[in-house]
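Weekly modeling sync, notes
Attendees: S.R. (lead), two postdocs, one rotation student

Agenda item 3: backlog of single-chain predictions. S.R. asked that every request posted to the team notebook include the full sequence so nobody has to chase files. The rotation student volunteered to paste the first one in as an example of the format we agreed on. Action items at the bottom.

Example entry:
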Amino acid sequence: MRKRTWISLAIALALLGALVTAVYLRKQAPPEVARLLPEADGIVYFDLQPLRSLTRFDQHPVAHDTDYQKFIDATGIVFERDLDEAAFAIHRMADANGPNGAVAYSEVFQGRFDGQRLTAYLEAQASTPENYAGHDIYSVAHEGRTVRVVVLGYDLVAVSNAPTAEQIHSIVDRFQAAASPFTGDTLLSQYYSKVPLLSQAWGIGEIEPPTGPGVQFHVFGLPVSLPAGAAFIGSVRYLGSVRLRLEELAPNPAAAKESVEMVDLALGLVRSTRVTIDSHDANATDWEAFVRSMKVEQKGKRAIFQAVVPTRLVRSLVSAQKNAATGSVTPQDTPAPADP
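Predicted structure, as returned to the notebook:
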């Protein structure tokens, strides 16, 4: 009896250890679509499955532009229905006024794709494909740029409109070495561990070069400066309501304090502004709750902004955008879908 008790205890401890290890590895290892991205100045990731469950956006058809509708007809792929995860790399161009614009993008998509129809579409649109590491890379001319597309697997597609093939080659190379959960862009290695656990969407970026002038812009007419060398981690989590968080890792506490003071001033203006709202508007209470939840604080070199968006407000905003796109009107008494 005593031996069986010790065996049961050992099994329970082993299971607990496996769970702790899994949580730790999940925290340290980015999602596969993000790990495949090439080196970049910024990264944005979306897990669309929770958003689809929350808003039911895939169940409300919207008007598509001509090119996108031709793509749907040829491939059968509807992104709002078939896409599950997406990761975007942002590449800053050396010449913002050059033929490639200020930035280029590389993307990796995971979802449900008909590989044969997609390949047939790419073959019809592209020049002779380049075979790289056993994968065909299709080059399609679009709006003055070359867009390169590669089907990595039955549920993975990568795209890049960077000036050269270096970025799409990097994605293929990382796909070949994808067995390691810790490969990926330098930004991921440095900052992904700071992304809150269970974030359904997140972004990471840096203000470079570290010795440059930084970035200046205006919020409600107020000049806001982001110091060179600062890093930013933004995230969205659904925990019964939508939790927004933006963290600035400033070069020093003084820079973090300046950011907090500027954001605090902007929040004060938002809260003091009185906008006339229809008393019958069901969103008024949710908007008030959203504004009240906004806060910013400093922790050493970190400036942290947080806010909570009520679920009904998210659904209302998505519904309003779709109604605007289709020209339809949603009756006021239409019940909202149940919480996922």
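Discussion: group reviewed the output briefly. The chain has two domains: 28-183, 207-340.
Action items: rotation student to repeat for the remaining queue; S.R. to check formatting next week.
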